[in-house]
Amino acid sequence: MDAESLGLSTPADVLQVATVLEDCVDQLVVLGKIMPVSYEGRPDAEEIVGDEIGRIVDTQRQLEQQFSQLMTARQDTKAPGAVGKVNRLMQLEQDISAVSGGLKGSNQFFSRSLKQSPLTSDNLEKIQADRAFVEQVVVEAQSELAASGTFLSLLQSVLSEREKKANLQQTILREEEGRKRIKQLHRLKLEVRKEKEVEIQNRNEMIAHLKDQLQEMKAKTNMEGKYVKKNAEVQVFQTQKHCSMSEQALREELEALKIKIDEEVRVNGEIESFLKTHQRELEEKVEYWMEKYDKDVDAKQHELDVLKASKAQDLARLQELTKLYAEYEQVVVEDRIEKEKARRKAEQEAIELQCAIKLQAWWRGVMVRRGLGPYKKGKKGKKGKKKSGKKGKKKKK
Description:
This protein is mostly helical. The protein has helices at 11-34, 45-78, 85-115, 121-148, 152-370, 379-396. It contains 6 helices and no strands.
């Protein structure tokens, strides 16, 4: 890029730009001479900070008002009946995005201003370094413009500064990520340390508890050993005593069993002789009952024959009576059927008579209402009709 591309076609234009740059350099030099090392301790330091913060706040308020106005305009444009919606909406969207970007930048600048005070010497040193850099760049651009009519050094300085700024931003981002990672690891380390301390404390408590249990178990084991030993000695003594008592009881039982065997042998002989005698008596009774059985069977057989003959006679008589009963029952059923038919016929005739009476009454009423037959309407007939109607009502009542 040369001077002609920016409209510097004549040496006079180049000279004017060089003069402006020279004046800018002089102002930067003067600014560097008059700037203090630090604002700390000055009576107007707080006023300077207040003015700076007030300016930032005013700028932010203006951006917020502009953003709210743009949002209201977008809502009005989206309303039905608005003309030229598409172009207007696109323009509003661009303005809103620009204003929102300005708000974000203003918030970041405001936050950074609150975090870092402009009164410190670090900020003033940075301002001095930036002023010296700008002075050097302008001086180089002025020299190049005066010598060759171009200002490539200015463009290169801007590009290199942009690259440095981008690298600085990347470094800052990496540093912030590293700090976040370090904080996260530090927090994790503290959590792990707390967990391990709690775990060690729990284990120490468990060890102490297990030691106490071990001492208790040792004392308990000694006591149990002594108890088991004494218990075994007592059980052995009791077993011996019990065995001697059992042996004595068995001897006494053996003597008793011998006496009982002798008694059982004697009783068995007596029972055997008694059973033989009783067997002979039972054999005699069996012979007697056999003879009695034969006699009773013959008598009962005779009685059975007599009963069979009587049963045959009774069966014949029963058949005759059954036949006679069936005939009587047939006659009774036929009589009942005849009576039922007569009753139904009488009921039917009564129903028909009632229906005929109702039909006659209905037809008489129709003739009276419509004046048919002998009930035709007339001067003389009205009174007669009324009288006859009253008589008819009396008869009905």
